[in-house]
Write a structure and sequence with these properties.
heterodimer, A: alpha+beta, Alpha-Beta Plaits, 5-stranded antiparallel beta sheet, about 30% helix, elongated, B: alpha/beta, Rossmann fold, 6-stranded parallel beta sheet, 20 strands, about 15% strand
Chain lengths: ~160, ~525
């Protein structure tokens, strides 16, 4: 089962390597990992997506909590979160197909951010699943290059994860 | 303003450090230069790993973080096994390593190695010092982290140039790490549940591990056992919690444990795991512990609870404090039927006559524990000798130091050196095999140089006995790379170091030999000739 785990960490050099190292040596698999500073510049927030059963996720949380620089760990409730991932994709598009691609972009809530004689680059920010569907739809045009950030997530409503 | 290297020495003094173990080199020379002028005693080991083990032995006696030092590159990497050993057994160490200058880091210069990266999987925490002014804060934190919660090793890697920066020295009075607040007191609701479960038990059993020793609460656990009338089994790390001859002590569990204690683990109806992490050598098949047994797991590290065994009542906290909370809440209980049924099966061990030309190592250790002073510290190495010590040396009021988690050969002599410095008036005996002795006998020089009055027993069976036994059982008796032929004459070797040595190859004069061994006022080595057929169990 896919789970989204949010981790608040000290914004120190080397923290990310401690966390990613922990995953590999304890045999946990990470699907994606995204990290950035929070509104408090001394704290970074890591969002990671991992697959595992209840035992694995519990162990993972406990092992993460043992790291001195890990301030808080929370496995977010899948129904109570807002998740987003950013994707940029470059596809090969001849001039006559441009408007077709733009229609798809409009329907799927993507943006055209660059264009050349033979290609278009699109940006889309949405859930992991929406991005994957978008990828499926534009694949026939010919994907030249694609990059995704990994999921970030925040809890719905007034629920907060702060220090 | 003082030099950062001097500040490092001052930090150690503030932490009450009087003895350190290490091996110098270019990158740590500024620090050594100030050590030279300080009151701190530096013990020069003969290989960095042994400095780590010596600090390990020292820390286990004092209960506080002990310090080992190495230089950058190979000096630090030699220390790695000792750090991993300390981590596996939750021993508080401060490892100080020199590092190449900050402007050279990452350039693969002479004697450069990424030390913080190398030890990350088995340190509790680590620091690569980049700002000299942070040294007092870092040392204060390092000592606090190493010695609190679940104890463990902390590395401080200090680049050469950083050691030479002048800083303001103000040692902090307190530590505030927002993400590190180890819990100590047990949750009172959980204590209530535990008390209720113990009251309802008819066949309670305490399984005590290294956590009890780490929290300095052996006496409380024994008191608890008597109050609730529950026998105690121990893991290897918990062997010295209770007197080896105490009637409620059933001895060691696990792969190399005895039948009575393993049977009790299966038959009890309430199992109190206290400071025991249910390691694979202690509980070889956690799923075989009866489903109807109620398991209570008390540990300072939440990650250990539920990791290896299903738990009915978990409780996080310091074993000593929790034991007191439990003692306060529990009435005197009696379980005569259960306890007597176990005690009936306890029989004294009958030692077999060894073959001609050999001693019986198990009997030697049994006799040694009868003759040794009550407070003797025995340090076992790894291999058959370790299991022989665990099962046949009955600790009284002293200690039995083993490295249970990592199984690091060569541990005994350096750890015994550390233990002796921590407790100079107590007899310290290291027991090793001829394999492990050849991994640490360079430390005989350390013993002589620093007047360490150590007693060493070498069980010589000319084999890596435990591996040989494994090959015999599981690999069609294919004896591969386990013969130790070519080993030196250990008595002559001792002579070369100017250390007295005795060799015995029969049980004939064992009493007088052991008496002499114990009474001898200077370092002494006893070489016991053991048959290669001698089994571990």
């Amino acid at each position: 089962m896919k789970k989204i785990i949010s981790i608040l960490v000290e914004n120190h050099a080397g923290v990310l390597s401690r966390i990613s190292g922990l995953f590999s040596r304890r045999g946990f698999n990470i699907d994606s990992l995204a990290v950035g500073v929070t509104d408090n510049p001394s704290i970074s927030r890591i969002t990671l997506v991992a697959t595992g059963n209840e035992y694995t996720i519990e162990q993972l949380e406990k092992q993460l909590n043992k790291l001195i620089e890990v301030i808080k760990v929370r496995t977010l409730d899948n129904d109570e979160l807002l998740a987003r991932e950013l994707m940029m994709v470059k596809i090969s598009v001849a001039a006559e197909k441009r408007s077709e691609v733009m229609t798809i972009a409009e329907i799927m809530n993507a943006k055209v951010i660059d264009i050349s004689l033979t290609s278009m680059t699109l940006e889309i920010s949405d859930t992991f699943f929406h991005l994957s569907r978008f990828e499926e739809i534009i694949r026939p045009y010919g994907i030249i290059e694609m990059v995704r950030t990994g999921t970030i997530a925040i809890q719905k409503g007034n629920d907060t994860l702060t220090v | 303003m003082i030099e950062a290297a001097l500040a490092m020495v001052e930090c150690l003094k503030k932490e009450g450090i009087t003895t350190v173990f290490g091996y110098p080199g270019a990158a740590i020379c500024p620090f050594y230069d100030h050590l030279y002028q300080s009151s701190i005693k530096h013990i020069l080991v003969r290989q960095e790993q042994n400095g780590g083990h010596a600090a390990n032995g020292y820390a286990r006696i004092t209960g506080k973080p002990a310090v080992c030092i190495a230089t950058s590159g190979p000096g630090s990497t030699n220390l790695i096994t000792a750090i991993a050993t300390a981590y596996a057994d939750s021993i508080p160490l401060i490892a100080i390593t020199g590092q190449v200058s900050t402007d050279q880091i990452g350039k693969d210069v002479f004697q450069e190695v990424d030390m913080t990266g190398s030890v990350e999987p088995f340190v509790k925490h680590s620091y690569l010092v980049k700002d000299a002014s942070q040294i007092p804060k870092i040392f204060k934190e390092a000592f606090y982290i190493a010695g609190s919660g679940r104890k463990g090793p902390v590395l401080i890697d200090v680049p050469f140039d950083i050691q030479k920066v002048n800083i303001d020295f103000n040692y902090p009075d307190s530590v505030d790490i927002r993400a590190y607040k180890p819990s100590s007191k047990g949750n009172s609701m959980q204590i209530k549940r535990i008390v209720q479960a113990i009251k309802e038990a008819t066949k309670p059993l305490i399984c005590a591990g290294g956590g009890v020793v780490a929290s300095n609460s052996s006496k409380d656990i024994v008191e608890l056992a008597y109050k609730i009338h529950a026998p105690i089994v121990t893991t290897m790390m918990g062997l010295d919690i209770i007197d080896g001859n105490d009637p409620l002590n059933l001895g060691m569990i696990g792969m190399h444990g005895n039948k009575i204690s393993n049977t009790a683990m299966h038959n009890c109806d309430v199992l109190l795991l206290m400071g025991a992490r249910v390691g694979d050598r202690a509980v070889t098949a956690p799923n075989l512990v009866s489903k109807s047994t109620k398991i209570i797991h008390i540990d300072i590290d939440p990650a250990e609870i539920g990791k290896n065994i299903h738990v009915d009542i978990p409780l996080v906290g310091d074993i000593g404090i929790i034991a007191q909370q439990m003692l306060d809440a529990l009435p005197e209980l009696k379980h005569e039927e259960w306890v007597n049924s176990i005690l009936e099966t306890k029989k004294p061990i009958i030692y077999k006559e060894p073959k001609l030309g050999f001693v019986n190592p198990k009997q030697v250790l049994s006799l040694l524990s009868q003759k040794a002073k009550d407070d003797t510290i025995l340090v076992a190495d790894v291999g058959q000798n370790q299991i022989w010590c665990a099962n046949h040396f009955k600790v009284k009021k002293g200690r039995l130091l083993v490295n249970g988690g990592m199984g690091t050969m060569g541990y005994s002599v350096p750890a015994a050196i550390g233990a002796k410095f921590a407790s100079p008036n107590v007899d310290v005996i290291a027991v090793c095999g001829d394999g492990s002795f050849q991994m640490n006998f360079m430390e005989l020089a350390t013993i002589m140089q620093h007047d360490v009055n150590l007693k060493i027993i070498v069980m010589r069976n000319t084999y890596l006995g435990m591996v040989r036994e494994l090959q015999e059982k599981n690999y069609n008796t294919h004896e591969v790379a386990v013969s130790l032929k070519g080993s030196p004459d250990f008595v002559k070797l001792a002579e070369a170091y100017n250390i007295k040595a005795i060799r015995i190859n029969s049980m004939e004069n064992i009493d007088s030999v052991l008496n002499e061994f114990i009474a001898y006022p200077e370092p002494i080595i006893l070489e016991c000739i053991v048959s290669s057929d001698e089994s571990t169990m």
